[in-house]
Amino acid sequence: MLSVSEIFYSLQGEGRYAGRPSVFVRFGGCNLRCEGFGGKCDSYYAVDASFRESWGKYDTKRLIAEYEFKKPYLYADTVLTGGEPTLWFKDAEFREFAEYLAASGTLVSVETNATKEIDFGFAPFANFVYALSVKLSNSGEAKESRINPAALTSFIKHSNHFFKFVLDADMVASGKAKEEIDELKNEFGIVPQNIYCMPLGASKEELLGNAKSVFEFCVEERYCYSDRVHIRVFDKKRGV
User: Fold this and answer.
1) What domain range includes position 14?
2) CB 116 within 8 A of CB 150
3) Domain total in the chain
4) Is 5 strand, coil or helix?
5) Does the residue 29 lie in any domain?
């Protein structure tokens, strides 16, 4: 059975496909804690084990039924998120759902921390788009936990992808943002146009406190800027 925190229809709020109508399927569970982000990420309810009892248990049939119920338009994208959705990629129920999505023709993007190697020999996974939200030192995670060279190399080689880095004003001001992103660019051959930088912000107040510095950093470094529209508009509200 698959653990699912929530399924909802909204507009994508960040990254390459910001503004596009999307059905979000948020899976429960994550392999990182990101204690540096104030102890909680912006989807803590899909990460923190204390919320596990609130996660729904789905087989493929139930998941498809609820997904279709929440999808009002045939052209809506699909976003697989979490938590960390790739933790489920070896599960038979998940693979059946992935095959269903692939056959439907929807654009599927996967929000992932890019620490898990993916079986790109499985056709649906090879056709998904991956938002590689690689964690930097401000996450509080040890480098060996947040950077998996083999997984990153595989994503870059085999998938349609873009990188999404979460930055805060202090990290930009100290030069750590440039240092750490440059290190990843040099090691993995990441091109600037594939890099989106996004201000840290689990609340509107926190987002606004970091946005200007990150915006200016993107201008200087020739990166794409990603806002967090859902937080800017709705603050901490879930399901948006």
Assistant:
1) 2-165
2) no
3) 1
4) strand
5) yes
Q: For residue 1, what pLDDT band results from cuts at 50, 70 and 90?
A: very high
In this predicted structure, the answer to whether residue 39 has a pLDDT above a threshold of 50 is no
Helix (H, G, I), strand (E, B) or coil at 74: coil
Whole-number Å distance between alpha carbons of 40 and 131: 20
Residue with tokens 């049939």: 61
Round to whole Å and give the CA distance between 232 and 205.
9
Share in percent of the chain as helix, strand, coil (round to 5): 45, 20, 35
- For residue 54, give the CATH number of its domain: 3.20.20.70
User: Position of tokens 């102890």?
Assistant: 39
Q: Is the pLDDT of residue 201 over 60?
A: yes
Which residue has 């599927």 as its token pair?
A: 108
CB 119 within 8 A of CB 125: yes
Structure tokens that stand for 37 in this block:
């982000």
